[in-house]
Amino acid sequence: MKKLALLALGVFITFSINAQDKRLKGIEKELNKILETTKAASFAVAVVEGDKLIYAKGFGYSDYENKVPADANTLYAIGSSSKAFTSSVLGLLRADDKLSFDDNPRQHIPELEFYNDDMNNNLIIKDLMRHSTGLPRHDGSWYYFPTHNKDSLLMRVKYQEPFTGIRQQWYYNNFGFLAQGVIAERITGKSWEDNINDYFFKPLGMNRSNATIAEMKSSSNAAFGYELKEDVIKKMDYYDIAGMSPAGSINSSVNDMSKWLITWINDGKYKGEEIIPANYIDEALSSQMVVGANTPDDEFPDIHFANYGYGWFLQSFKGHYRVEHGGNINGFSANVAFFPSDKVGIVVLTNQNGSAVPSLVRNTIADRMLGEEESDWVGRYEKRLEKNKKTQEEIKEDSESSNVKNTTPSHINLDYTGSYSHGGYGTFEITSKSDSLFTKVNNDDIYLHHYHYDVFELVDVVDNKIDTTQYGNSIKVTFLTNDAGDISGAKMKIEPTVDAVVFKRTPNTIDVDTKTLDLYTGEYDISGTEIKVYTKKDVLYIFVKGQPEYEQIPTAKHKFSFKTLEGFKIEFLESEDGSINQIKMIQPNGTFVANRK
User: Fold this and answer.
1) Could you give the CA distance from residue 237 to residue 32 in angstroms, rounded to a whole number?
2) Is the pLDDT of residue 1 over 70?
3) Which among 34, 396, 428, 476 would be 20 to 30 A from 219, CA to CA?
4) What is the C-alpha to C-alpha distance for residues 380 and 57, in angstroms, rounded to an integer?
5) Which of 345, 312, 307 has its CA nearest to residue 326?
């Protein structure tokens, strides 16, 4: 009963506030139009001015199937809008003389290594905060191969190739924010999640906010995520961002986020108490890196610059200085924005995947709050949507035209099976089932659809059915062969700014009992060269004088691969009486047969 009474009171207060501000009179009509045009399940919006919340309301349904209305207290995943929280923790630690933004990250994480010595020696924490490391996104690393262990996830950057030099070009990178979170953990001795709770949620009274999907699932009034697929609103599973949490795992409501906005608008203070140091606020809202050097265009003539601070994008909006950051994660989109000089802030959260709703709602309200001429944001969106549809059709046509018909893979399915690994990403396993190849990525079943030659597409399996709509428009895998003709790896263009990422293949192994291994042991001769075959602790070895002993990995009946030499394998040849009298030695420079002595 108590929760229901409080909820009703909250709605009453919201409506009273709504009625008081003449600038937003009739705004619901425009916001409902955005909801209808975008076919979003729901969104919630809050507007602050100075130190007051002047508008907060939900539209649509947080649970679309059961028609549960969204409100200002509904929880949504805010994605990368979490980044300003993470960098602010470092701002607090700097104020306590616990670090300098000019420190090398390795001073605080000694085991951290980057791709090359230049990065190891010359990166500073500030580069992590403003996306100036020279690394591209490499998001496939954490998105497809998640782990809850932040430290082990961060160790992957050693194998992630940069695309430019340090501080040469701005490029968005989530691993830089993971590193900031880990630095704070090392200094405070607390988890990033606890730091966010202790430094911000508690003092700001953001009582509904949390930083894990587990807490989101157990919370009341939490929105489900949705996507618009072929103009149908479809539910999506929650995505557990896991160890990448410092880059975007916060779940919050617009009522809670309004307190965060008030803090930034008021030089780091909330209700007279300093939450974030004022000197950090000034620095974080100042241009630390140029995002893009484009001049205003015909579509957006009032956008005069595009820069980045610490966890914030900086732009002009019709002559007003705007600070904002969006967020996207499966089924949810967000935007948190404010205008420091105007003391106005707007937060928009929606349960629609990759949605335009946050920017449309933000701009529509900003026009009114700033007293600017109202633009037809929905009309612009509809034109852009139509243009994007044509572009997607052209991309699909290009993909189909590049597909070489009537080709076949170079090997049988079994030869493609095995585990595929890359130090900067992770490992996936390919198996053969019902004459088809399958894998799992983040516990999702994936079908490998043959595209042409040794190129396959990764296609989702949904409810035990292959999503054929993805044919021709999904990530492609090109299988590689070594000099011996074996499948040695697979490459995927999952990071567009660098060469395709190559995953090294390790063949699947089989169990071979001791009795069978004993059949192979003995001495063999090839052109006067003696080859010894023996076992140690149920492992088969081959030894040639003058060379190291080579451990063998069983891959099929009578077949083994060298553990340390790529492209080298052997097959024991069985006689009609079942005895083993020969070894076929398969090497990159040829195939040879040795006879038992």
Assistant:
1) 26
2) no
3) 34
4) 24
5) 312
Q: Is 183 helix (H, G, I), strand (E, B) or coil?
A: helix
Beta bridge partners, 56, equal 46
Question: What is the tens place of the pLDDT at every residue in 221-235?
Answer: 999 999 998 899 999
Torsion sign over Cα 336, 339, 340, 342: negative
**CB 253, CB 81: distance < 8 Å:** no
pLDDT at 228: 95
Residue type at 341 in one-letter notation: S
* CA nearest to 251, candidates 197, 189, 198: 197
Does the pLDDT value for residue 14 go beyond 60?
Answer: no
pLDDT of residue 567: 79
Spatial separation of the C-alpha atoms in residues 487 and 485, rounded to whole Å = 7
C-alpha distances (whole Å) from 472 to each of 276, 458, 459, 476, 517 are: 49, 10, 10, 9, 46
Report residue 248 as tokens.
């975007």
Sign of the C-alpha dihedral, residues 309, 312, 315, 320?
Answer: negative
Which pLDDT value is given to residue 13?
Answer: 32
Q: Residue 429: CB partners within 8 Å, gap ≥ 6?
A: 418, 419, 420, 439, 440
How many Å apart are CA 562 and CA 541, to the nearest integer?
9
Task: Quote the tokens at residue 227.
Answer: 């996507």
H/E element, 139:
helix 139-144
Per the structure block, which two tokens stand in for 437? 């190849």
Cα 456 from chain centroid (whole Å): 23
Strands (E), 545-589: 550-556, 559-562, 569-574, 580-587
